[in-house]
Amino acid sequence: MKNPVTILSDSPAFRFVLIMGIVNLFGDWTYEGGASVNGPFLGTLGANAAAVSIIAGAGEFLGYSMRSVAGYIADKTGRYWLITFIGYAINLLAVPAMAIAGSWQIAAALVLAERVGRAMRKPTVEAMLSYTTGKHGRGWVYGLNTALDETGATIGPLFVALVLLLRGSYETAYALLLVSALLALASLSVARFGFPLPSRLEEGRTAPATGFTSSYWLYMFAGAFFAAGLMSFELISFHLSRAGIVAGHWIPVLLAFSTGCGVVASLVFGRLYDRIGLPVVLVAVCLSSLFAPFVFLGGFFLVLVGMVLWGIGYATQDTLLKVLIASVLPEGRRNLAFGLFYVGYGVGWLLGSVATGLLYEQSLVALVVFAVAVQLASLPLFVIANRL
To answer: Of 168, 165, 114, 153, whose CA–CA distance to 33 is shortest?
Structure first.
């Protein structure tokens, strides 16, 4: 077996996956660093729990639903690199702009803008990565990319926590995230000029379907149920702050801890999926569904357990769901296929965010029951889709 250095030097496909992973490392450093304090920051500007959850849910809905538009345009025009650059620029620069938001409404608009930018670049990046899966395996490609992605998502909140610990303000933390945003854009430039045509990296048939199959649509519906119960960190951080479970500057550390667990889970799940397939997805969904009772009904130590499970949920979203869709991609419409999948996923996320935001104000037990039930409801859909 070749060592990693040999693989890196011999395989352009691996180098592309690695460089795009570095882009996402700095990208997640930026927007996950910001997301780690968006909830409390919105609270300091006057937003309540329902507003925070609905803002987060609307942002995720836009961030998922608009991917189909970006994917369609990319497939039709072939300008995937241009769309990717525009998306990253909006996605990343909206975060440091939070430093000058004077009201929760302006901050909310920037949260939505950040998600829209992510929507623009997400299907094009995932479609470009799909060309490398013939050589390295779907699970490993998306697992490695997600692991680097989540590494940035671990560092970003820790960076923000350090700023707050040193008695910096939320505004200072947002402003300093401009550095990681610029590093992400610089890394993206390296990828663009080094690999102007990622399709040339393809080995074998990496888009196995001739059209949109029944399995594809069932995976979409299953993903929507899963998304409805996963929840954004904005609501979780709002709860931790309001309940006084941890001090404000430790909340980003909890996010970093959770995403660090997600790094490990992404690599493990990716490798296991290439070996045993769907059972890995089913186990991951079951584990993810258990996060809500620990986070919303427990004290500090139970919250720690819940954040591990929440990290597993995000690893499932960012690795395993991509792998499932990559297994039914239609040739010639890869960008659109990823984009459409995220429309369904985004609808589920929006409905779930509205429901959990409203339930939070009424009953934490009802919120937990809802979150667990809708995630478990995705299991039979995953099984049926896999068998078709």
So the answer is: 153
Rg (CA), the chain: 19
Q: Which of 112-121, 126-135, 177-186, 358-367 has the lowest mean pLDDT?
A: 126-135
pLDDT at position 4 = 46
pLDDT bracket for residue 178 (50, 70, 90)? very high
Give the residue among 315, 60, 324 at the shortest CA–CA distance from 218: 324
pLDDT over 50 (residue 2): no
Which amino acid is present at 282?
Answer: L
Q: Let me know the angle formed at the C-alpha of 345 by 374 and 174, rounded to the nearest 5 degrees.
A: 105
Phi, psi of 209 (to 5 degrees): -95, 155
Q: Residue 330, SS3?
A: strand
Asked if the model's pLDDT at residue 5 lies above 80, the reply is no
**Residue 330: strand pairing partners:** 209
Length, in residues, of the chain: 388
DSSP, res 318: I
The token duo for 4 is: 């990693």
- Between CA 141 and CA 275 the distance in angstroms is 14
38, 323 Cβ separation under 8 angstroms? no
DSSP 3-state of 171: helix
Alpha-carbon distance 322 to 341, whole Å?
9
Say yes or no to pLDDT of 1 above 50.
Answer: no
Tokens of 260: 């660090």
The CA distances from residue 16 to 129, 197, 366, in Å, are 8, 11, 45
Tokens matching residue 388: 């078709």
pTM: 0.71
Is the pLDDT reported for residue 259 higher than 50? yes
